TrEMBL record:
Protein's organism: Brevifollis gellanilyticus
Gene3D superfamilies assigned: 3.50.50.100, CBS-domain, Jelly Rolls
Protein's name in the database: Nucleotide-disulfide oxidoreductase
Lineage: Bacteria, Pseudomonadati, Verrucomicrobiota, Verrucomicrobiia, Verrucomicrobiales
Family note: Belongs to the NADH dehydrogenase family.
MF (Gene Ontology): NADH dehydrogenase activity
Amino acid sequence: MIKPPDRTFDVAIIGGGFAGVYCAQALLKQMAGAGLRVGIIASENHMVFQPMLPEVAGGSLSAQHVVNPIRMICQEAEVLKGEVTSIDMPARVLTLTGGSFTPMVTVGFTHLMLAPGAGVDLSRIPGMSEHAFQMRTVGDAMKLRAAIIGRMEEANLLTHTADRKQLLSFVVVGGGYSGVETAGQIQDLIAGVLRYYENITPDEPSVTLVHSGERLLGMLSESLGTYTGDCLAKMGVKLIFKCRVRAVTARTVQLSDGSSQAASIVICTVGNAPHPLITTLGSAGSLPVEKGKIIVEPTGKVKGLGNVWSAGDCALFPKKDGGTCPETAQFAMRQGMVVGKNIAAELLHKPLKPFTFTGLGELATIGHRKAVAQIMGLRFSGIIAWFMWRGIYLMKLPGLDRKLRVMAEWTFELFFPRDINLLTPSFSSPLGEMHLEPGDTLFRSGEPAQSLYAVKKGRVDIRDAAGQLVKSAGPGEHFGERALLADGIWRFDAVATEPSELVAIDGGTFKTLVKSIGSLEMLFRSTAQQYHLPEEIQRTVNAIPAATRDGTAAEVMTRAVISLPSTLCVQDAITEFQAHPHSTYPVTDAEGKVTGLLRRSQAYEWLKNHGLTCQHTLAELPLTKPFCVSATMPVPVLIETLMRSGVSKALVVDEGQHLLGIVTLFDLLKGA
């Protein structure tokens, strides 16, 4: 029986940007009073007014004033904060994850609107993803501003001019809107606060803008692009044209012409890439995709699909006058509105209307109270364009309260200096420690796996759905690798059985380490084998011949086992290795009790470090702890024990721990 979705919507909208939010608003307005169930699924619970992000980085605006809670601007819609991991188009069901404590949530839909925006890929430039700041979210802008002020504070402590210049070198990559506005805001921020840093001279900070084109703002006229470059240069920004970034290091930016620029902070405003969700759906044939974007009709309906729509940066949206729409806020907003109205029309069995908007114009701030604008064929620059930019975007900003707050903040900025408080945002550490009391649940089956856990103190029991113990992890042991290496979902419950201290390594860091260090991947894939589901174990048991399955460990074991006495010297053990080649040998005491396992590699390592003439006995070597099972253990239990323990062989002993034989999982299976 197929489990029904956790929630069901008439229209599910993926994306909380301009396209998604304005689609929801238009749809709800058209269907007012109809009881339409609309769900907005977004990675954040707010919509970011991205044109104002550079002003947040430059300290002109507070971060909270450029975001709007989606729940407040779309009050009739249900908002789900989470990341969509998969979409089953034929079944009309999508799956999302909401965080560390939330299991996967399934959502059914009648109509689906795809507006997740674009992704980012900085991996094409070596070092860019490791060292560069981005300007995509409010967190990015806050982090950048804190980093700039932090560099100023540190440079003020240095005594050498060269060191201060190195620390205060900022490089912006990309000459589009974001690059130009960010470079101008950084230069304005530095110029506005420099007088408060008595040890920094005006010639020491530097802002460099690297652009691959011949002029800035290629989407505007040549005269406005040239004007923009001239203004930035007069402000003190160094411009580098017709050059690409080849690589980024911790202290420099390497350029394609062979030169390099000192860079303490690198801001990357390029690198847009297809959204991963769209790429996955396109590769699976669930969506028509071209150049990483969804192919849509002029109505916003996805080509070839009757109930799927798309808009914004992820859609190849056709323009009325030919070509496709640019990735700008004004187009995303109006595309969303058209799609919202057309979904309503579809539900009401009315004709759909095509997208006819061709653009009102383009605006960009340069900094120093200057801007450029190209509106309805007219061109503006300087302070007039700056007032136009602020007025137009103030009107576009959703919510009266946000408009008033931004207006007040802009007014204060005209008379007072920018804020230089260093409020460093706190970011999650890849390592975290936690305390658990007996009975505390760490995770439950079905929840998303976020971390690998190591036990410092105490004990955590991992149990399957039937409550059967899979592993009891004590000090020095770890767990969680199976879920992280597989589908990222816990298949077991983990509960502390005594006061415990754990170290958690976040999943992203774990995967990076595993991919980078081959031996770690082999280790974790090996230890992951011990976490078997009951049905997996039962399949293995069923594969054993019935005659074998009904026996005990004593009946299926190999009795001819080459064991070594603990009093044997290492050199004599080497002779036994040559006579009876095996990878491991049980070591027994004078009474025949098992005391450990000797690996050939252990003996050779010992000889390498102590010399060929050593007379040490095997009892003095660091032997491996043996894995022993009772002779009376039934074969099904034996198989489960081996699989749960992640081992392939076990020593069979009696009640007194005397060696009787050896049994391997391979021996049990080979007769199947």
